[in-house]
């Protein structure tokens, strides 16, 4: 029997307090393929009460007990791996191969990294006459987005449990079915009643209620900067901790000494991955002005290699974007790029040829972009790359940092020392040199309006802990 219309609270699948249903849209067809229940304050109250009741006992579990639980969750996750991949592909339009390798793989990777970090994490340290201990902060409200559903769910749930916290999760109502399956994973793993709870719903009726709830000790939110500000203001009345991973407009500096063709082509790939729906995507490519036209040739060639189409079809590289709202926003921003005088290199408004239904966006590259243009300032969240020329390295760094965001930055150079020196000048939480492999042990989070706090491995565990100094220990 499907649990799509139920919530997971206090170790059981239950009906919402007030029946209300929302269709889940397949973005490749624009049609509903299932429905979920959406919650209200009464459901949040019930879930928070369950988490509060479970906290005292669970917070006293030993490291070894929590490790054993996380390992059971990982095993149950692997058992449902294909179900998770299929759900992500259907609900957000990810090509099935990408959904398996990257989307479902991200959840598994974060669970494995959290387990590894917990095995050696120091929860107590002697300082002078004091014993400094790190204790679970309490009941945590976790609000996650639609673009990397399992990445963000596991990024929050796993370290919260590793720290000894109890949680209430609200997955995105746009991509909610992977959250249902994850809740089934938690149930199958034997997570104690009340330690993990899940309520579906929208931001105003569930997310903000969670953020405001007096019995919630911390909110961990991933989403847009606009929504993050609302969550932070809502949480402020009860002075709870708020961790945020928000928007980005990441610069990718291709230095003159880079392997130029490779750097440009991989930059296009990075921008277009996940149909451009990644907050840390390298969406602003900065290239030497005297090689700008060469960069556009490589970018055009690479962009036109991308096959956009049915997420379930062999060979598809880009699926649709997630919703009609996102599609409309991307189209408006592409039009703005044209109107403001950027050079449209390839792509443009409308759907790709042969695709008349579904939220498909043409892979698009703009050249001659200046950093005051809308497409260089606003997060587009689609397969749209802006190429900006720079005169010298000083100007490249200045342009890269001239943004309200600071989630990620990228630097390309054959000289690793040169790349490192530029990386140190980037005002961003993560800097990637020469397109390295994904590293789930590195901290992830932003400067400026890209948020606060850090996720991944021990960095994430730290954010779910309070620090207590017991003075006079000796």
TrEMBL record:
Protein keywords: Oxidation, Oxidoreductase
Recorded GO MF terms: oxidoreductase activity, acting on the aldehyde or oxo group of donors, NAD or NADP as acceptor
Sequence ranges assigned to domain Aldehyde dehydrogenase in this UniProt record: 13-468
Pfam families: Aldedh
InterPro entries assigned to the protein according to its UniProt record, in alphabetical order: Ald_DH/histidinol_DH (IPR016161), Ald_DH_C (IPR016163), Ald_DH_N (IPR016162), Aldehyde_DH_dom (IPR015590)
Homology family: Belongs to the aldehyde dehydrogenase family.
The protein, known as: Aldehyde dehydrogenase family protein
Organism this protein belongs to: Aquibium oceanicum
């Amino acid at each position: 029997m499907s649990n799509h219309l139920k919530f997971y609270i206090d170790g059981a699948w239950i009906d919402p307090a007030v029946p209300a249903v929302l269709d889940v849209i397949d973005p490749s067809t624009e049609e509903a393929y299932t429905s979920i229940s959406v919650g209200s304050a009464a459901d949040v109250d019930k879930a928070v009460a369950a988490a509060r009741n479970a906290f005292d006992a669970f917070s006293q579990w030993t490291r070894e007990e929590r490790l054993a639980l996380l390992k059971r969750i990982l095993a149950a996750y692997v058992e449902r791996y294909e179900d998770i991949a299929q759900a992500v592909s259907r609900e957000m339009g990810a090509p099935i191969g990408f959904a398996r390798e990257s989307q479902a793989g991200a959840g598994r990777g974060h669970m494995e990294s959290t387990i590894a970090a917990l095995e050696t994490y120091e929860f107590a340290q002697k300082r002078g006459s004091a014993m400094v201990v790190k204790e679970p902060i309490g009941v945590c409200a976790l609000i996650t987005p639609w673009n990397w559903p399992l990445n963000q769910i596991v990024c929050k749930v796993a370290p919260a449990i590793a720290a000894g916290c109890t949680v209430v999760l609200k997955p995105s109502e746009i991509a909610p079915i992977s959250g249902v399956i994850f809740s089934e994973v938690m149930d199958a793993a034997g997570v104690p009643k009340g330690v993990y709870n899940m309520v579906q719903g929208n931001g105003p009726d569930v997310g903000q209620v969670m953020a405001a709830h007096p019995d919630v000790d911390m909110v961990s939110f991933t989403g847009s900067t606009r929504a993050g500000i609302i969550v932070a203001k809502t949480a402020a009345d009860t002075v709870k901790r708020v961790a945020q991973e928000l928007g980005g407009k990441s610069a990718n500096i291709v230095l003159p000494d880079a392997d130029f063709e490779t750097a440009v082509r991989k930059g296009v790939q990075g921008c277009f991955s996940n149909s451009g729906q990644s907050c840390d995507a390298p969406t602003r490519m900065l290239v030497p002005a005297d090689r700008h036209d060469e960069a556009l040739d490589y970018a055009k060639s690479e962009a036109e290699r991308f096959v956009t189409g049915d997420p379930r079809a062999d060979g598809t590289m880009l699926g649709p974007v997630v919703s009609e709202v996102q599609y409309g926003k991307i189209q408006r921003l592409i039009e703005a790029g044209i109107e403001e005088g950027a050079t449209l290199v390839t792509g443009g408004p409308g759907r790709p040829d042969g695709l008349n239904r579904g939220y498909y966006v043409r892979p698009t590259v703009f050249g001659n972009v200046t950093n005051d243009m809308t497409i260089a300032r606003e997060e587009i969240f689609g397969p749209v790359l802006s190429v900006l020329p720079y005169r010298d390295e000083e100007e490249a760094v200045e342009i890269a940092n001239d943004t309200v965001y600071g989630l990620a930055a990228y630097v390309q150079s054959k000289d690793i020392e040169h790349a490192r020196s530029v990386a140190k000048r980037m005002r961003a939480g993560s800097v990637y040199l020469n397109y390295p492999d994904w590293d789930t042990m590195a901290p992830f989070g932003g400067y400026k309006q890209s948020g606060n706090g850090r996720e991944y491995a021990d960095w994430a565990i730290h954010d779910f802990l309070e620090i207590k100094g017991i003075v006079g220990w000796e």
